[in-house]
TrEMBL record:
Pfam family, one: HTH_1
Xref: InterPro entries: LysR_HTH_N (IPR000847), LysR_subst-bd (IPR005119), WH-like_DNA-bd_sf (IPR036388), WH_DNA-bd_sf (IPR036390)
Family: Belongs to the LysR transcriptional regulatory family.
GO molecular function: DNA-binding transcription factor activity; transcription cis-regulatory region binding
Assigned keywords, A-Z: DNA-binding, Transcription, Transcription regulation
Top-level lineage group: Bacteria
UniProt lineage: Bacteria, Pseudomonadati, Pseudomonadota, Alphaproteobacteria, Rhodobacterales
Annotated organism of origin: Paracoccus alcaliphilus
Name of the protein in question: DNA-binding transcriptional regulator, LysR family
All residue ranges annotated as the HTH lysR-type domain in the record: 1-58
Length: 305
C-alpha cells in the first residue's frame, strides 16, 4: 500500500469530510474522489459507505486508522534513513511540471541550472492536480505550474512557499498557409477548435476565460486532448484552431508556420510559479531553488523574445 494512499484515507478520517480532506490534500473534490475510487479499485476493497450522504469511511477502515498512522510514520522514517545512508542528502532533485510547461519552458530552465551546477534533475510531467499530489507526498521537491486570476494556486503560505517566475499568454494559433480557410470558417460561424478536457487546467481557462467573449455557436469541436503538444499539431496541419502557451508556439510563429490570432480569438494571461513545501531541506535542494528563481525570469523572457 502506497504512502500517499494512506495519507488520503487518513485525511478523510481526520477531517470527517471528503470535501475538507480534498482541501487538505490540495485537490479539487472531483479529483480527490477519483483518487479514492482508484485506491479502492487497486486494493479490491470498498473503503467508503456511499449509501450515506455524505459518504463515510466504513467502520472497519476507521478501526485500522491508528495502524495506518504507524505504517505511514514507518515509511517516512524508512525514506529518511535511506537518504541518510546515501550520504546524508538527496543527490537528485525531482521537479513536477505541468505538461504544457514541460513541453517548452522546463527543459530550458533545467539546462540553465544543470550545466553550471552539475545538478541531477528528474522531471516528472503531469496535470496540475497531479503535480500538487507529487509535491505534497514529497515525491517531488519542487513544482512548476501555471495559474490565472480565475484559476489560482490555492496554497496555505505557512505550508507551501511559492515564487512567481514570470508571465506569458495562452494564445490562439493556426497554420499560416491555411489562414484563408480559417477566415471562411469564421464567416460561416463554424470555426474548428481543439478542446482540452473540462477537468484540466487549460480546459478551464479556455472555457471560463476565453470562450465567454464569443457567441456559443461560433466554435465547432474538432478533437479533444489534454496534451498541448498534440493540440499544436492540429494547428500546424491546418485542421483546427488551438490555444497554447506562447512559449510553445513561438518557434513556429517565428518560422512563419503558425499565425497568432489573439486579436480575433482572445488570450488569457498565465502566471508561471515555482513551489515547494516549507521546512528543512538539503543544501542541494536549497541551491537548486535559488538558481531556478534567479534564472527563471531571464529564461522565460528569452523564450518569448
Amino acid at each position: 500500500m502506497r504512502l500517499e494512499w494512506i495519507e488520503d484515507i487518513l485525511a478523510v478520517a481526520d477531517t470527517g469530510s471528503m470535501i475538507r480532506a480534498a482541501e487538505r490534500r490540495f485537490l479539487t473534490q472531483s479529483a480527490f474522489s477519483r483518487r479514492l475510487r482508484t485506491i479502492e479499485e487497486q486494493l479490491g476493497v470498498e473503503l467508503f459507505d456511499r449509501s450515506r450522504k455524505p459518504a463515510e469511511l466504513r467502520r472497519a477502515v476507521l478501526e485500522h486508522c491508528e495502524e495506518m498512522r504507524k505504517i505511514a510514520d514507518s515509511l517516512r522514517k524508512l525514506r529518511s534513513d535511506l537518504v541518510r545512508g546515501n550520504g546524508g542528502e538527496h543527490t537528485r532533485i525531482v521537479i513536477a511540471s505541468q505538461h504544457a510547461i514541460t513541453a517548452a519552458i522546463a527543459p530550458i530552465l533545467i539546462q540553465a541550472i544543470t550545466e553550471p551546477g552539475h545538478i541531477d534533475i528528474r522531471l516528472r510531467s503531469a496535470n496540475r492536480e497531479n503535480c500538487y499530489t507529487l509535491l505534497l507526498t514529497r515525491q517531488a521537491d519542487f513544482m512548476l505550474s501555471y495559474s490565472t486570476d480565475r484559476q489560482p494556486l490555492i496554497f496555505d503560505p505557512d505550508f507551501i512557499e511559492t515564487c512567481v517566475l514570470g508571465r506569458e499568454q495562452l494564445i490562439p494559433v493556426f497554420s499560416s498557409q491555411d489562414a484563408e480557410r480559417l477566415n471562411a470558417a469564421w464567416e460561416r460561424r463554424q470555426v474548428p477548435v481543439v478542446l482540452y478536457p473540462n477537468d484540466v487546467f487549460l480546459g478551464k481557462v479556455v472555457r471560463d476565460e476565453i470562450w465567454p467573449r464569443f457567441t456559443a455557436d461560433l466554435f465547432r469541436p474538432y478533437a479533444e486532448t489534454a496534451l498541448t503538444l498534440a493540440a499544436l499539431q492540429f494547428a500546424l496541419i491546418g485542421a483546427a484552431l488551438v490555444w497554447v502557451p506562447r512559449s510553445l508556439a513561438q518557434p513556429y510563429i517565428l518560422k512563419g508556420e503558425l499565425e497568432e490570432l489573439s486579436n480575433t480569438y482572445g488570450t488569457a494571461e498565465l502566471t508561471l510559479s515555482l513551489s515547494r513545501i516549507n521546512g528543512s531541506r538539503s543544501p542541494h535542494a536549497e541551491a537548486t531553488w535559488t538558481m531556478l528563481i534567479s534564472c527563471g525570469q531571464t529564461q522565460l523572457s528569452a523564450i518569448l523574445d
